[in-house]
Amino acid sequence: MLLNNYTSIRQNFEAIDRKLYQLSPESYKVSMDGCGLFGYTNLVDPKKIIDVGISEQLACQVLFGLSISNDTKVYLSGMSSFILRRSYEQLKLYINNEVPNVTIIGYGSGVSYGALGPSHHIEEDLALLKLLDNIKVYVPHSIQSFEKKLIHNLDEKFPVYFRIPNELPNNLLLHGKYLEENVDEDITLYKKPEISKKLIIVTGFLTQSIIDKFKEESGIDVMSIEVLKKLNIIKLLLNSYLEIEIIQDARSDTGIIPLILEQLDTTKKITIKGFDKHKTGANLSEMLKINNLI
C-alpha cells in the first residue's frame, strides 16, 4: 500500500455492486477468468453474471451482443492490461465504432501489479484509450468517487471506461490545511489558505499521495482530474499559477498531459512526470518512487 488510507478495490466492490443491482437489476455483468470484480460479488441474481474464462476477445463480443439484444447497460470487468492489449480490435470495432450502452471497469491500471512485471503493467493504457474517441474515460481518485461515478454512469448511454488501480483511498484525507473547491463534477482543486504560486496536477489515486507529500509545504495547490476530456474550463485557473507540475502513472505523451499543455502559457515553468522509462519494483509504492512520481 502507498498509505494506510488506501484499500483494496475487491474488498470494497461488493457493496458498490449491490447498489448498482438495486438501481439497475436488469443489467448484465461480464467477467473474465473468474477474477473480474463481478466474480467476487454475491448478487441476488447470479444468472446476470457471465464469465467467459481466459478469452478477452470473446468478452468484448459478449459485452456488445448483450447490450444490443437486451436494451440495457452491460458491464465488463477485468485486468486493464488484458482488456486493452488482447482485445483492442474488438474494443475498436464493437465498442468504439458501434457506441453501445456499456461500461468497462479495467482494474490493475498502469503499474498497479508491481512485481508481476510487464505482462501485468500497462503504462500505455491512456495512449490506447485516446485513440478510441467514442469511449469516455473516468479516473476516480477514491472508493467514494468510484461509486459516485458508477451510479452517475447509469444515465450515460454510451461506452465508458473506468481506469482503476488495485487500491484506492477510502475517502481523501486533506490534513486540515487543504480546502476543497469543486471546479466541475470531475475536477477538484485542493487549495492552501495562502496564495499559491505552484499547482500540481494529478489523476486518480495519485491525488492522495501528492496531498500527503506536500501537506506541510506552503504555496502549493493540488488539482485532481478524474476524466479525460477537453479542459478549456480551467485555462484561466491554470494560468494564474507561475509553476505547473503534471504527474500521472502512465506515459507522459498522453492522458491529461497534452490536454493540460495546450491550455498553458508557454512562459511558465512546467514539469512533467510519467512512466517513460519502465523500472520494475517490488510493489506499487516502490514503482512510483523509483520512477520519481511520488
From TrEMBL:
InterPro entries the UniProt entry points to: PDH/Transketolase, THDP-binding, Transketolase-like_Pyr-bd
Pfam families for this protein: Transket_pyr
Limits of the Transketolase-like pyrimidine-binding domain: 3-171
Top-level taxon of origin: Bacteria
Protein name: Transketolase-like pyrimidine-binding domain-containing protein
